[in-house]
Design goal:
By secondary structure, the chain is mainly beta. Helix content is 15%, strand content 43%. The structure holds 2-oxoglutaric acid and fe (ii) ion (FE2). It comes from Pelagerythrobacter rhizovicinus.
Length: 191
């Protein structure tokens, strides 16, 4: 369990596949994972909608939501207690105050759902993501003079990743369509 450990402690279990990305395996236990899965499934998840385009993944926002219609950050329902509690534990791992993470985004990727290449909206800052239910591969790419430089990072269930700095700003990320259901909970600061 990585929770008492500073994510940046050199002797810690965190690894940095690209500068600014940190990954901690087994950040939570299997029982807690099951509880979080139930919470996510009980949340008011809706298909991600971008104009006419409807994504296959299901999402729910708390605290802050990006309004794709207006191209700006908007308010969202307050964080429920269970997310507040999780935020209290996870934020210190990124060396931040819990309140800095103003947004919580729940996502469920049922079979066939993924997320295409993107950088997170620039209005948001650091991203802390908890990966649940099934192994996934976070693909990263950044444009070079000749094509893309690429990385693939395995996200085991119950792992926690942090995106900041170069990994957050210079690289795009995506997750290929899942064969089995995966869930994630991401927390974001405002820039
Ligand atoms: O599901 C994840 O872990 C990543 C989601 C993501 O990249 C996003 O919502 O911007
Ligand atoms: Fe993202």
């Amino acid at each position: 369990m990585g929770f008492q450990r500073d994510l940046f402690a050199p002797e810690g279990q965190a690894v940095a596949p690209v500068p600014g990305m940190l990954l901690v395996e087994d950040a939570i236990g299997a029982e807690e994972e099951r509880a979080l899965e139930e919470r996510i499934d009980a949340a008011p998840l809706e298909p991600f909608q971008f104009g006419q385009w409807r994504g296959k993944r299901l999402t729910a926002n708390y605290g802050s939501a990006y309004d794709y219609q207006r191209g700006r950050v908007a308010e969202a329902p307050p964080l429920p207690d269970w997310i507040e509690a999780l935020r209290m534990r996870l934020a210190p791992l990124a060396g931040r105050d819990p309140q800095d993470f103003v947004q919580a985004l729940l996502i469920r990727y049922d079979p066939g759902a993924g997320i295409g290449w993107h950088r997170d909206r620039p209005q948001y800052g650091e991203v802390l993501g908890l990966s649940l239910s099934a192994p996934a591969v976070l693909r990263l790419r950044r444009r070079r003079a000749q094509g893309f430089e690429r990385r693939s990072i395995e996200l085991p269930p119950r792992s926690l990743y942090l995106l900041r700095g170069e990994a957050r700003e210079a690289w795009e990320h995506s997750i290929a369509p899942m064969a089995v259901t995966r869930r994630s909970l991401t927390l974001r600061t405002l820039r």
